[in-house]
Specification:
The protein has about 240 residues and is mostly helical. The chain has ten helices and no strands.
Length: about 240
């Protein structure tokens, strides 16, 4: 019933201006892909704690300001969120937190994501959302592919992209949002082929970056092996050190 009432409100109220929608969808794409964007900012040489904080606070505040409070209807999830906020406030009041200023700021930004999403009007995201996600994924896949080529064979857990081991993961998360956008629209054979062609290469690159880590860490024949005390006992190629 609540969703029916929300749909009736959305129908009754006039649509937002196109420019406002475009800006809101662009900023929302940056916000939900913020981890990937921050990795790219570090790669561009402008990454720092100040830049990261400014980006996160700025995008969250702007999307919140561009939200449509007139279309908001309270539902059960809002009550659960209010209880979560109340429990966190009680914890802070009792001093049950061990984080510093930075951790507390990130915690509050995480909580702010809920009202930001709730104030976005229901309906399809515009094409600017998809193009922004595709741009992030495209740059991320190129950077990951170059890192794989340069670091292949090294004793690494994952390829280090712009100084981050988890870069391929956050790029894949952004790719997932892009897939959701395309899959939520009307699908036919032509559109499906376009989606598959668009995401095939990034998916391959990120999958290699994810699954290559166990093989890159497999000991070779000349890798020294430690004993129980951490001392090297020789090469696997010598008879005394074979298992």
């Amino acid at each position: 019933m609540l969703y029916v009432r929300q749909a009736m409100v959305d129908h009754a109220l006039p649509a937002d201006r196109t420019g406002c929608n475009t800006l809101r969808h662009f900023l929302f794409a940056l916000l939900i892909s913020s981890d990937a964007v921050l990795v790219l900012l570090h790669g561009a040489g402008v990454g720092s704690s100040l830049v990261s904080g400014t980006f996160l606070i700025g995008t969250t505040a702007m999307v919140l300001c561009l939200g449509s409070a007139s279309r908001f209807l309270l539902n059960q999830l809002d009550v659960l969120f209010a209880l979560l906020v109340l429990s966190a406030a009680v914890g802070f009041a009792l001093g049950l937190h061990a984080g510093g200023t930075k951790e507390i700021a990130l915690f509050l930004l995480t909580f702010a994501s809920y009202p930001v999403g709730r104030l976005i009007p229901r309906g399809a995201m515009g094409p600017i959302f998809a193009w922004t996600i595709l741009a992030i994924v495209g740059v991320g896949s190129i950077a990951t592919a170059l890192a794989l080529a340069a670091q292949w064979g090294d004793q690494m857990s994952k390829p280090v992209v712009f100084g981050f081991h988890h870069a391929s993961i956050v790029f894949m998360v952004a790719l997932g949002f892009g897939l959701i956008w395309f899959a939520s629209g009307p699908l036919n054979a032509h559109r499906t082929r376009i989606i598959c062609a668009t995401f095939a290469v990034p998916l391959f690159v990120f999958s290699v970056a994810w699954f290559a880590s166990p093989w890159s860490r497999w000991p070779s024949a000349s890798t020294p092996l430690p004993d129980r005390r951490g001392r090297c006992i020789g090469d696997m190629s010598t008879p005394s050190s074979r298992w």
